[in-house]
Request: fold
Amino acid sequence: MSRTRIHNLSISLDGYVAGEVQSLETPMGHAGERLHEWMFATSFGARLVGAPTGSAGVDDAMARWHEPGIGAEIMGAGKFGPPGWQDDADWRGWWGSEPPFHTSVIVLTHRPRAPIEMAGGTTFHFLDASPAEALDVARRAAGGLDVRIGGGATVAREFIAAGLVDHIHLVQVPIVLGRGALLWDGLEGLEHSYDIDVVSTSSGVTHLTFTRRSSE
Ligand SMILES: NC(=O)c1ccc[n+]([C@@H]2O[C@H](COP(=O)([O-])OP(=O)(O)OC[C@H]3O[C@@H](n4cnc5c(N)ncnc54)[C@H](OP(=O)(O)O)[C@@H]3O)[C@@H](O)[C@H]2O)c1
Reply:
């Protein structure tokens, strides 16, 4: 059975997954890279930023779950580009000519456009649909494999609120952002639907995994 998974979603102590204001120069707003420094320090994350090496400890092991068994990703318009990217016919995402997804990526947007095929097996498809409809499309594209919900905050929250997410891996980073894109709004009582495991590592972050209870 194809599952729906969130991985490496990095969150501040006060629940923000991005700061403000998001722009071409500041994709994560005033958070800068602070939410992802833990990951860029791992050998998994080093590859993403073109660094020669990274750590091989628990952070790296957790980060690597991002990829195995994933056949498609769903992301929001806010992750795909800075506000207003829909007005730029040439915008092809942040990730260069060979994005690190290597699968179909469904970009949820109220202003869809034609699909963009990239090098390395990534194709961006643009869709205006409910979370359940988008998941159907992604599952078909995933060919029986799992679907990753790539964020940002709004899309992760929509899918969690709709009861469509089986596994959530959050990485709590010990910073307080005070403003930005909040994950938890409207998700009161979420802990009743999931078994939650927690491990803190020497880098200072805390990994939380939420596994949906089988009766849910
Ligand atoms: N901390 C992390 O690990 C992490 C991970 C991923 C992303 N991020 C960051 O999170 C930020 C983006 O988060 P966000 O909450 O601002 O935006 P988001 O969740 O990426 O995208 C939200 C937008 O997607 C479109 N959308 C969402 N649901 C839709 C639906 N059902 N149908 C059609 N369109 C839909 C809407 O855009 P339109 O109305 O404009 O079309 C909506 O405003 C970025 O800064 C990104 O870098 C952080």
Remarks:
- The helical segments are 37-40, 43-49, 58-63, 77-80, 131-142, 153-161.
- Residues 8-10, 17-18, 22, 27-28, 35, 76-79, 108-111, 128-131, 150-155, 158, 181 surround NAP (CB under 6 Å).
- The chain has a mean pLDDT of 96.
